[in-house]
Amino acid sequence: MAALRSLSRSFQRAAPLFSRYAPAASFSTAQFKVCINGGAGGIGQPLTMLMAMNESVKEVSVQDVSMAAVPPAGVAADLGHLEFPSKVVGYATDPKVPATEQLEACLTGCNLVLIPAGMPRKPGMTRDDLFNINADIAKGVVEACAKFCPEAVVGIIVNPVNSIVPAMAELYKKKGLDPLKIVGVTSLDIVRANKFVAEITGKSPADIEVPVIGGHAGVTIMPVFSQDPISATISADKIPALDKRTQDGGTEVVEAKAGKGSATLSMAYSGARFGNKVLKGMAGTPTDECAYVASTVTDLPYFSSKVTFGKTGVEKIHPVGALNSYEEGRLKEAQRSTRAWNTSQGSERNSGAVQRPRAAQPVAGSRGENPGNFSPEKEEEVQSSQTVFCYCAKGISRSSSLVIAPLAAVVLAEVSLRSEEEHADPATRTERSQELPLLDEESNSLFLLLRGMTTVSFCEGPPPLAWLRSRLAAIIAANPWLSGHLRRNGVNDAVSLRFDAAGATREVQLLGSVNISSSTPYEVISQQISGSCAEVRPGLVCLQNSSEPLIRVSLCDGGFRDEFALIVSISHIVADGHTYYKLFEMLTQNVELTSLNPRRKVHFNQKRIQAVGQRQYDFIYSPQYVLNCLSGKLLYGKPRCRAYLVNSERVAEIKASQIKEHPDVPFVSTNDVLTSLFGRLIDARVCSMAINFRNRIAGICEDDAGNYQGLLCLGPKDFAEPASIRRLLQRGGTTGIYHEISNGADAVTPAPDFWQTLKSRLAVMTNWAFNQPQLEQCRMLLHLPHFDLEEVNSDMAVIFRPRAGELAVLTFLKDLDMDELVKEADGILGRPLSPEVFREKKSGCGLHVLQWVPLLFGERLQIYGVQHN
Ligand SMILES: NC(=O)C1=CN([C@@H]2O[C@H](COP(=O)(O)OP(=O)(O)OC[C@H]3O[C@@H](n4cnc5c(N)ncnc54)[C@H](O)[C@@H]3O)[C@@H](O)[C@H]2O)C=CC1
Ligand SMILES: O=C([O-])CC(=O)C(=O)O
Predict the structure, then answer these.
(1) What is the ipTM of this complex?
(2) Could you tell me the residue ranges of all domains in the chain?
(3) Are residues 576 and 608 in contact, defined by beta-carbon separation less than 8 angstroms?
(4) Which terminus has fewer CB within 10 Å in the chain: N or C?
(5) Nearest C-alpha to atom 7 of ligand 1 is from which residue?
């Protein structure tokens, strides 16, 4: 033990890497308190260790969220055994409760706070992509610092340093505190430059000190090789590559870690280098380190240059110093780019809710990095951004418990589609912008209340971010209507789709978070997605706010599992299931891209009414039908949700026997078998079967985008057998008329009257099994249609494909137990699908329907096309 102790001490004293930033030997007692926020993370743990090893530190607070990979108390217990004077104390906090209410003991008395709390990058992401989620985390911690340790130096490690530092410094200014307490830690750039120079020159890194100025992203990282005597000897032709490697050091590690994080150990080392220098200054020995701070050395408000740390923190900010001609050019480039970070992001994110960054254009040649080289004028252009691409970073927590569903944090980014219309001159505007009237049903107020059509697909493998980005870009280029917005036309207030036919540019921005994994209960998935930034808002909201996107694509990390979730949400007002899955397939698989036709076939409404019969159509929109749904909801609250795999062999047997028994029926489909089964199992008075009218009504084709669907109401005699359903469809297919509840001569079952309808069981059967769910380069673990349980109105069953080659039925029942009913399912429904996902329901009350009242209030209730037209 003694030998180890002496080894450790001698290592600390002798090793040049440590001695170069070792604390001043002038003090004999430990005196400082240091806090590491995010202390249980990849950087946090080794950084806490290194700070605990500083003999001038008397106490280290290690703070992290309660669901962190390792409990902060565990990290503290572990490090508390090191043979150094420091006491290490863990603080676990609840991310839902403001940090200011939880960090008093943790921060009070702190001299130095280091913040590596937040998401790291994944391959394909820029640091800027991390802003939205990380800025909120940083803001919570910095507000607590302002309250409990306003004199401490706050070292911002969390990315993007370039924009989080200005935002936090402005926050300090607003509170009347010294913005220079907020310091961006860019020491890793210096460490990298030193190491790369040592490799090239063969000299000891301990003798090299390359200043790195500018910022901490892409071209803003500017090593000044001419100012270090050793690096100044490197020939000029080698400098650009060395410069570039230093800029790309972070990306090099992100790519090598292949989705499992960014630099942690070298950052912990660099964070300790920074922290120890700050403490050395506080202890009375002024010490220099380049850092990103509020600055006047250039015309930029925030800039990294050499800073002297003294007793109270930042003491002096040094000018850039002499530069050679290559560096002069680079400075201009770095300044231009840093200006964008300073002006567009920092200054506007200074208080209140931290705002989403404006988009930044990538600089040609800067690999995997987005330094944001746009000018304030260009910024104006992106303000009209609309639509969407979301993606995610590494999980916030990686619970090692397999019992508790792991929480996975999502970093959602938005690819904003910039409508150039606002800036185009009026002549080109009319040529390029289009406004297409939508179908009557798409204009109905009740239909407009529908949420986006959304699926969540849990996949195994690294998230194919680059693939999704490029596919989404290509899909939108081929289908610019997806970037449009809804508006009421001036003639009859019907809804139309307005978009820029010239397409749009795409930018990536962060939105927020959703916590789900493939073992999360469906009910929780439903709660997490509903209303989140991953879900497209109901049509009425999109109509009232033209900046609401009509499509969102999000990736959600699976935490410690090698999985992630892809969430694709498309407004129901512009897409039915057929359109949705066409787009989904193009997004996820290497299929040919198609331009779907968004121009609505206006004859469709009349043809559909003719096809299903006016009475059927009226029935679906009748007050008694709506009241039945609402009363069920008010009485029973949320439905119970279950899913069962379809036994394809049994289905094949039934099909064969049906054809044998009913020679007039050429075939029966799996949909017929399942609809008949569901209607019978739950003893429905009416089972409304969703029907896709493409190729059933003349002129409505495969590639027509929009809601060319309807509900065909079947009575008990109609769904008594799969063959009876097929017979009905066949007759409709040949005559163009589906009779059932209509008053046609061969109607089988009369429509229920008002009171019957009110008290009967009305079921809905819908089919989402359009194609095999797959995601290029990944294994599909589970693909699920998303329904908000609060909003499922009737007893409902959804046919879908949970994985390629499998078919399942998802059931939502109000007062029936599907686990009991499935025993009578004639072997058609097999084992339950993912029992961990489809667990017991929680009770709920249906009063939430009242949420729609304010939305409808102020809207004239418009039901188009129900009246005979
Ligand atoms: N400035 C620089 O040169 C560098 C910065 N970074 C940045 O540092 C950050 C952290 O990276 P890693 O440690 O690799 O990530 P990590 O995911 O391993 O650790 C982050 C930790 O933050 C915690 N956390 C999340 N929300 C929190 C909250 N509200 N309060 C306290 N803790 C919270 C998480 O639970 C986790 O333990 C990233 O943003 C990364 O980009 C990384 C390398 C270099
Ligand atoms: O590159 C990243 O995302 C992490 C970082 O800032 C670095 O390693 O320099």
Answers:
(1) 0.99
(2) 30-345, 384-588, 604-856
(3) no
(4) N
(5) 158
